[in-house]
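Troubleshooting log. The previous structure file for this entry was overwritten by mistake, so regenerating from the original sequence record. Sequence copied from the archived sheet and checked twice against the printout by T.R.
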Amino acid sequence: MDNKQQEILQDWLEVQKQHWQNLLNGEDVPASDWSDLTNTCHQIAEQLLPQSATLVRSMTDQAKEFSRYGEHLLKALSAPDSPPDLEEIVFEFGSHVQDQTNSIFFKQLELPDHLSTFLSSLGADTLSLPGFPFIQEGIKNNQAHLKKGLQQAEQGFKEFRNALSEYIEIQKDINRDSCHQLLTALKEGDKVESLSELHSLWAHHYERCYHQHLHTPAYQATYGRLSNASLMLKKLNRQHWEREYLDLGLVPLKEYTQLLERHHDLRKTVKKNTQQIEQLKQQLRQETDNNTEKLQQLEHQIQSLMKDLPSAQTAVKSNSKEKKKKAPAVANKYKSK
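Regenerated output below.
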């Protein structure tokens, strides 16, 4: 990170710190407009950590929105008397937090783009969820596989819609309980003088309510159904586009991935075979060198023997002559006897 980027991030922290300090001092300050700084922070995040840019963007947006709603609540709490609309302010604050939670949850599901856009346009309201939105009268008499795919998609979307409705109701219960506990704590005298304290108090009550619902059979079953339904929708979406690619003469992602895996396996096999061939070549060179050395030794021995052969032949001839000379003398000796 260069000095310019460090200065921008430091300015971002200083602006927040100064704005909150002005609020604590009771100064009448306009709402902060941090658009330029947040956009700059997003750009820095994309440069430094592209894979975390979405997370950084979500966190900075949440911080800005939390500050906007939190400032309204802080001003109400700093009044001499408790405002009559404190309950309304707290539940408005809780509703905003719930909207952010739902938005993040939809992103975590990683649904197909058209379905994600559709749900985002509806908002997290179970009453607004209609039936299957993609079936059209003009394609009812189309190909058999398309009709079958639409039936499966409609069934999958119904399951997802029902599970999502139950999950949203549970989230609403958690958020409602958290707001009640926060309101009770504020009315009973918990002093909140900063956004940090407000955030800590809200997080404490929200986490406690969430923990109470997390281990219930209803929550576990609903979350499991919702996860399975979202996976089924993603699977159907992938199968649909694979068929469409094949009809257009294109290679679908699944087959392309398989080709890449096969290519990778072939490269590994070729590399392994090449290593084995090199080992065999090395062994052959070593055996050749050993055999060459043995042949040279044998040739040297043969040459030595060839050099010694004339002297050996001469010695044999001389021994034969001596034996011939001794043979008559021995014979005469036996005759005289």
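Residues 86-250 form one domain. Archived copy saved in two places this time.
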